Amino acid sequence: MIVAEQKPLEEIKGVLGDAENVLVAGCGTCVTVCLAGGEKEAQLMASALRIASRVDGTPIEATDVTVQRQCEWEYLEMIEAEVEKADLIVSLACGIGVQTFARHFPDKWVVPGLNTTFLGQPEEQGIWTEQCQACGNCMLAMTGGICPVARCSKQVQNGPCGGSEHGLCEVKRIRRVDGVPVMVKGRGGRMMPATEDVECAWHLIHDRLKEHNRLDLITGVQEPKDWTTSRDGGPRRIVREDLILMDEE
Amino acid sequence: MAQDRKSTNGKHDSVLVIGGGVAGMRAAADLAESGLKVYLVESAPGLGGRVSQLGFMFPTHDCVLCRGSSDHGYGCTRPSISPAFQDHNLHPNIELMTLTEVVGFEGQLGNFTVTLQRNPRHVDPARCINCRLCAVVCPVSMPSEFQMGMSNRKAAYKTSPRAIPDAYVIEKGPWCEGCSKCASICPTQAIDLESEPETVTITVGAAILALGYKLFDPTPLEEFGHGRYPNVLTSMQFERLASRSGPTEGIVARLSDGKMPERIAWLQCIGSRDQEHPYCSSVCCMIATKQAMLAKQRLENVDCKVFVMDERAFNKEYTKYYNKAMDTHGVDYTRCRISALREDPKTKELILRYPDKEGNTVTERFEMVVLAVGMQPPDRSAGLAKMMGIELNEHGFCETDKFQPLQTSQPGVYVAGAFQSPKEIAETVLDAAGAAGEVMRVFHDSLGERPAPRQYPFLQHYDTDVAERDVSGEPVRTGVFVCGCGPMVSQTLDLDHVIDKTKDLPGVVFTDKIDLACFDEGLDFIGDIIRLKKLNRIVVAACSPRTHEALFQKTVRNAGLNPYLFEMVNLREHCAWVHDMEPEKSTAKAAELVRMAVHRVLRLEAINRIAIQPHRSALVIGGGVAGMTAALTIADSGYDVTLLEKSEVLGGNLRHIYYLVEGLNPQRLLRDLINRVRGHHRIDVLTNSEINGVSGSIGRFLSIIESPTPEGQTETIEVEHGVIVVATGGREGTPAAYRHGEHESVVTQLEMEDWLAHQPEKLRNLKNVVMIQCVQPAEASHFYCSRTCCTNTMKNAIRIKMMNPDCQVTVLYKDIITYGFREQYYTEARRNGVVFVRYSDEDPPVVDIVEGQLMVEVNDPSLDRRYLLTPDLLALSMSIIPADDTSKLAKILKLPESTEGFFLEADLKMRPMDFVNEGLFLCGMAHYPRFLEEAISSAQAAAGRALTVLNMDPFYVGGVIADVDADKCVGCLTCVRTCPFKIPRLLYDRAGVGAIGGHAWIDPALCQGCGTCTGECPASAIQLAHYRDDQIMTGALGVWGEEADSGGADATNR
Amino acid sequence: MQRTGECFEPQLTAFTCSYCAYMSGDTAGAMRIQYPATTKVIKLPCTGKTDARYIMSAFEDGADGVYIIACPIGNCHHVRGNERARARVVHTKKLLDQVGLGGERLDIFFLSAGMGESFAQAAKEMNDRIMRLGPSPLRMGGKEVGAGEAGEQKNGGDETGEQSVEATQ
Q1: What span, in angstroms and rounded, lies between the C-alpha atoms of B636 and B650?
Q2: Given a contact as 3+ CB pairs under 8 Å, which chains touch A?
Q3: pTM score of the predicted model
Q4: Architecture (CATH level 2) of domain A2-118
Q5: Considering only alpha carbons, which residue of chain A is nearest residue B979?
């Protein structure tokens, strides 16, 4: 699913301009599941904006509404009345929802309330990890269900590289809590972001293939990956002839 | 079916429970639930016993006695264990008699005549409003027993803040001079100083002795200086000191100077394991470990040292707990028994001397010393035993048969808890539930005759003739009753002002003051007004809902209203009593509290629990001694049982045990059990059978069982049943060390027992036998104490010595765990010449084979000496592991497992035989390794608990529980992941929001009503009944006063 | 009129569970321990039930401060509800900082049923803290009448409690 996290309120307040009627729009699918933008978060955000405006002495009235999926305009249509009343919409959906909003209500100003972070999986309550980068050319069949594109820091196709040690990657991840890097005192007393270990994806791939007796899959050299299905040539588009009715010429 | 069960045989269906501690309360609650009448007799003024004095329980550091309750709603913390013991919510089948002694006992099973002496309380609990005035004016100041003499109390006092009965008591002992000030000041005339002891006679069919124990008094042992040196405490004194309800609210400080100690020592086995007390008190090791951990948490940089002979951490999770004390908290354990100490008169430090590893004497100073005092038989037990015709053992505890561990020598009289043998809370609770189970079996004809099915949150009988009025269409008509509590509230608060502020609030149609709402006149007035004014929401502003909510809910229900259309405001404990220096502000706060309640009741709705008619039969999984005992207890009580056994024969581990350390023949028990089970017309035995799936919940389970047909095919049977008893047992682990399998002379203890029994002649050739304790099996990921192996080793060592005295027997051990009276076999083994050598985890024994000869090398860390042994037989004490496929069964039954892989019960201490999943019960070694007699009593406990369900006709579930709105649920699994009881499930066959497959479902029979899921649910799809978002966010959460009401809710029903 | 610390009467909302936490308040009562009459208690089945929205709603309703009283860590009747409450308090404090009310106006205490003294101490501590921070800026806009409160306590909408905002930032 799509994983997102909330922007700091300060940033959202900064893009409200002189809007008075603000509609906080939650989305009931991925961002509800990742606890970033569902009904409860929309209510909380609206409440926070109302309190902030009263503290700041600005005339903002914030209300909230949640639809099942903001990325589909049929759902947005259901909240047309609420949207009509608002000067500005804070969308608590992923980037797709924000854009669907902008496109479906061309005369309304919409701002994102979330940072869409990655395609990932909940490890446990409160922890999500990236699993897929939507490269458009899945190679998981070769790698035992572990993706080197999303989970290898270097996206190496013939791994592991020389930086894999004891199952860990030489590239460390910046440790973030609630989106904010955790700072620790580094050498020389300077504050620097704390890092944490990342498992080497290729190490995992090797172990898993070994367990399944399929090491043959990675003993050969992998040809360079075809990236044309990825971010090559601008935004991607899918056309399914079995699903669309073509106009007769 | 219920019909054919009844065949009155004239036995009295009343039970006497002597002792109101945790065992007595547990037994009384279970018996009451099963529909029998209980007289609960306690000599102290209140319930709770020793447990009420404990600040925390090992290994969970819970105080949470409220978890002793198996149903939803209130369980008070202390000292009560169940809603059955709230003062205004006492179970209707329990007659509580405090300050009462048994002075006469005669008759036989089914018909005992009991004479009771009821000593005067001098305070009428029905009139006592706990105003404390009697204690304030009382001139006597005397040491408080509850605080172990570390603070004072008056002669007019309450035993503990939440005493049951919830009333004061006047102790007219030598301290009281009879000044009568208390009687004069009592605002409700509840005190009668002239009342005399009364004698009453009751007739009961059976009795349960839950007398508890007496703490050993170390004061006569001058060498420890208790009573002379202020910083020498008993373990119970330290317990109070560290308790949050103790004299310092949990601050551990020295009694001599209030200084926080930096070095504390615990001296173990004071009054245990000595010449006069040749038994182990079973709990002191863990208490010291717990107290040392608490001290480490409370005090920075404190050094905690425990002087102990053997650390007896022998129950579930205890090994882990003991390791945590050492590794995480840095508690230091020194293997040594301290025999004396001195005080430095200047610093009041205590000076201990003990030998170090090299044998040199070390002198160390401590700022506090805790004496871990042992358990002794209770004071009056000898006289009581004589009167009741009960045999005591040589130590003065109750004598019982190994095969009937809860039965005393007097038929119809049962025993539970420490009076049977020193034991901890969990074992005590098992005994109590087991004794109750035995009584239910004997009085099965009377079960369910006094039903109390928990239809409403209060248990007391309500007027069933009054139908409940459906008010859902009516406009809200709220009545507000403000209680003055005699003078206790009205003297501080201006109640007219409160009423003035209240009468125009939305929905309010009636307001009035009552002098004492909880007295009969007050309750009658409320009921009359409800009927007269057709009220449909009630607010009572009085004292704490914790003590009085059930009482008023009952009144509301008797007036025809659903008891949830009611809200209580605490004007006393939370207002008048804590702000009496500021009457105006206090009145303002009172008005605000009432305003909040008025806004809340506007939105309240009736809640009705769901009636469930249980299938009147049980499924018992496992055909060992525990399973067979449980099956027989249930079947004898008149319910059908399906007994499932995976192997082809009944008997389990008992088939391989040929003698007990006590000398009895367990094969006799085995034959007897199998014959009774096989011959019982209510027990259907399915051998070679396994359970494949279970659906449903408490009362209504459906199991799918794979069972062989006589033709040798496998058939799938569906069985309906109301309860499940899990008795799948455990087995000896497989050796993976010490050359087992490489040399024929390396055997497990069980293998050795087999040939000790069948080929004793082999013994004659043995010259040197070595036994290694605590061998971690191949199956276990970490070591844990299996608690039975040490005694088993004693048994076999003594047998070898008996049959071949010239054979040298050496036992290599870490800690010898021979708890309770089993200590005497350790003594006997040593007396017979068995040599014991300690080894440590860091330096375990090494076994080699040199030219076919076994060589065992071991280092004794306490003496730092190496031994080389050349045994001709090496026996390994393997840890006991859960039965094979325990994990698989756990998944089928949706039950959790402990860190050791055994089934995990609802609460380690208070509910060792229950699962959080109601309707399932646990016993035998499926719970944890245990002795035969322990397996039997735990099976009786599980069966007794199961019978409380089977007897309900019907029983009720639900109430204040969480409910998922399928139209809003996105199936995100947040509730599944965050429920502390793992109750929500995703139903994939149902449609959630937008008709997407799968939405969460919370079983109303299982939900505990905490609301954690509602707080986490990102879609606001879960609401907790009675605490819905709109019922909490009423608009009255913030600023005070009626001005905030503008824009409030409309005063109509939803 | 800008209210100053002297004539200002804080109005606090406390959420408790119905187990240890609520009963610590009962114990304070039984022991007659005095504390400021500035807190109203809302009893929930468990502090695990305290939704961040309840806390925000109390502030929106004009509360000067909010606190939660939970059972001691490890002693929750519902196993870990108090830890959930703690996590939500940490999160909501950040939100309060962001909206300008200040996270200091929110806190959580862990009390066992016997700790009446500590219950009163928590009430005093929150009362004193709010006295120092001043009234909630949200309370300044509307007029409120505490039933026992004397004196004029209205405020113009243009005075937005900058004092307290500064104090918390």
Answers
A1: 19
A2: B, C
A3: 0.89
A4: 3-Layer(aba) Sandwich (3.40)
A5: A125
